[in-house]
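Predict fold of DUF418 domain-containing protein; 390 aa.
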Amino acid sequence: MGIVLANIVIFGQPITAVMWPGGFIGPDNDPGGWLWIAQFVLIDGKMRGLFTLLFGAGLMLFMEKAWARGATGWLQARRLGWLLMFGLLHYFLLWQGDILTVYALCGLAVLACLRWEVQTKLVAALVVYVVGALLWTALFYYFYLIAETPLGANPMLAEAHTEILAAKGVPVADAATEAALMQDGSWIANVAHRLSEHRFGWLTVLWQVAWETIPLMLLGMALYRMGLFDGRLDPRKQRLWGWAGLLGGAFTTLLLALWVQAKGFTYFTTLFAFLGPSMLTRLPMILGLAALLALWAPRATGWLGQRTVAAGRMAFSNYLGTSFVMLFVFSGWALDLFGRLDRPQLYLVALLSWAIMLAWSKPWLVRFRYGPLEWLWRCLTYGRLFRLRR
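Predicted 3D structure, encoded as C-alpha cells:
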C-alpha cells in the first residue's frame, strides 16, 4: 500500500516529476510544495526500504524451511530466477518502474551471505549502505554545486557546467517522449519504445539502487534472525527504538526537505536530496517502521487490521495488479488520465487503489490458500502444482 503512494506520481506523470515538481505536465496544485515535502519525508524511499527489508527477511525464512526439508540454496536461486522473469515481463509489458528485477538480482547476490553470522550481516550491511550513501551524496552535491551555485560560473568549470546541464536535458526529453506515447500511443507503441530505447533500463535502475537494496536485504535477514518479526525481542525496547528511529529520521529528513523548498525545488536540488543525503536520513525511519509494524501486526485483529494483513500476504499479486489497473487508468487508449491529474488528484487515485486491495485480498484468502501470483510463483519454484482452493 505504501509502494502505491511512492509510485503514484510516476504512474500518472512523466518520470522526472517524482523528484522534481517542474516535471509535471501542467500545474501540480501543491502551493508551497508542502505535499511534496510530506511525501519526501513520510513515503519516498521508506516504503521501498521497508519492502526490501521484508524481502530479505523472507529470503531467510524461505531458506530455513528449505534447509529443514533437505533442500539447498539452488531452490532459492530458482525462485529468484522466476521472479526475474516476472520482473522483466512487468517492465516491458506493463510499467517501466518495475523493482522486481532489482530484487531478483540483488537476492541472488545475497544468497552467498545466507550462512553469515548475524553480527557479520549487520556490520556488512551498515558499512555498504553508509559508503554507498556517502558516494551518492558527494556525486550529486557536485552536480548541484556546478549547476546551481556561483561555482558553476568559474571559467575553469565551464565545460563541466555545460555537460551537467546537457545531462539534465536527456531525461527531460525522454520523459516528454514517453508522455506523448502514454497520451496518444497504443499499448504496443509503448512496449516497442521500451524494447528499442530502454531495453537495458532495468540494469540502470539496478546500478542506482543496489547500494541500498543489498544492504537492506542483509539487514532484513539479520533482524529476522534476531527475532524482530516473531516477538523474541523485548517489546518495550523495540517500541522505544522504533519510535526513536521513526521520529529522529523524519526530523532530519524534514530539515533536508525544507532546504530544498528554500532553494525553490530546482532540478539539481531535488535530485541531490532524493539520491544523496536522504539515504542516510531515511534508514532510521525504515528500521523504526519495521520495529513498530512488527509489534502491531499480531494485534491486527479488527476489521481494518485483518484486511491490511491480507493485503500484505498478497503483496506480489497486489504489486503487479496495481500496475495492471494503472495501465488502464492512465493510458490514452483507456481512461486517458496521464498528465491530466495534479498531485492531490493522484493521491486520491492511490487511496482508491488501497480500497481495492483491502476489498479483495481478504475474501480471496478466505477461499484460497495463496494469492493468484503467489500460487503461480510457488508452483514454478517447486515445479509442481499446489492445491489452491482451501
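The chain has a mean pLDDT of 94.
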